[in-house]
Amino acid sequence: MAKGGSLKSTLAVSLNNYLDAGAIVAGGSGITLWKNYLDLTEMHLGWINALSANALGAAIGAIVGGFLADKFGRKFIFTYNLLVYMLGVLVVMLSVNFPMLLAGFLITGISVGIGVPASWTYISESSEVNNRGRNICISQMSWGFGPMIILLMGMLLAPGGYLYGPVESLAQGVLGADAAQSAVEVFSSRVVFFTLFVVAFIAWTLQRQLEESAEFEAAKAAEKASGEKGGLMKSFSVLFSNRVAIKSAIFLAAIYLTWNLVASVMGFFSPHICETAGGVTNEYSNMMNCVQWATVVAVTFCIARIVDRTSHKLLYIAGLVFALATWVLVISGGVNSLFGLWAFVILWGLNGGISVQIFYALWGSELFPAKFRAGAQGLMFFVVRGLSAAWGLVFTWIYGDNGEGFTIAAYCMIALLLISLIVGVIGCPDTRGKSLEQITKERYGENY
Fold it and tell me: Do residues 70 and 375 make contact, with C-beta atoms less than 8 angstroms apart?
């Protein structure tokens, strides 16, 4: 266990989830402003989504980060990775053209991907048996706080917002009084990304002080004593040669991929959906999505108090029922009315509070041995976010420029969520109340 107890280390590492979700939503909340400033098309927006922390950028980072975390340790990732994140955010902040903006989102996304396997693995490995679910939920709360705060800032700083005046003055001071209106307005998004830079610096400072995971050190000691040689190919050969590991990877990838294809669209395009399909302003859209993420945080807080003593299968089903209700609402009543739009936002917030991601993070660290625990998560995350990148491009085509394909998209979302529900119910593992060592021995035997 990390020095100071699992709660202290969990809070420090959970800032990575804040930065992950914050990067996705910061792009989404200001995407209309960037679109106007750089004269972007819907296809441009699809590429930004595809290469960002929402999809391919994170996918590339995850497979690298998982290997590095198993090879050099979880602390190695915490020592260097957020420096890459800060670079990516800085590039976005200073962007003056589409290639620069795209590069900033890609760099930030790669850093997010690198950090995810190490973060979830470290939280589980440093947790007490009866607090593992709670700590994963705390991490998930941070994933909710990021968008909530980012959207609140986006709402206040957006054109017409209460704090837009200082942003406008700053922009005119930098660009000159005769600057184009779109160039001035996009400064609100630049300021939001600057706050991510500050939080990343704070998180990097805290995480550098953490001790290495005891589980990782024990696995490395056992590897050294047996004379085994580690490495990327070795880790993957062991993973793919073990039937239990293969089945676990397929199960986890299936439940997370189908849910994440829906969540990735919601995370990046939700404000845009509210503006185009719902017809509300950018400021009102940010406010609605801020409430949605506040709902995520509140529900996850409640789940954190009961998850370690409540049926995981029951909670899993409840989360997906809310998710399905969100998209059934679209088909049955649409989101053209303000009431329908609010119901859409709140229902997805309830799902986010008991999301598949909580159980993927929990089970992903429980169902694999320490020697390739982060690598397995990195591989699955690579597959999930990589396919999410392709889906982001397909979604923009289905959705259309003004939301005319929203109902068709909703049917696709329902089908994906039903798959996640069915597979999760059938394969839900019995791990609650067991130590990671006990779970590993039960699933893999004494040699792992």
Answer: yes
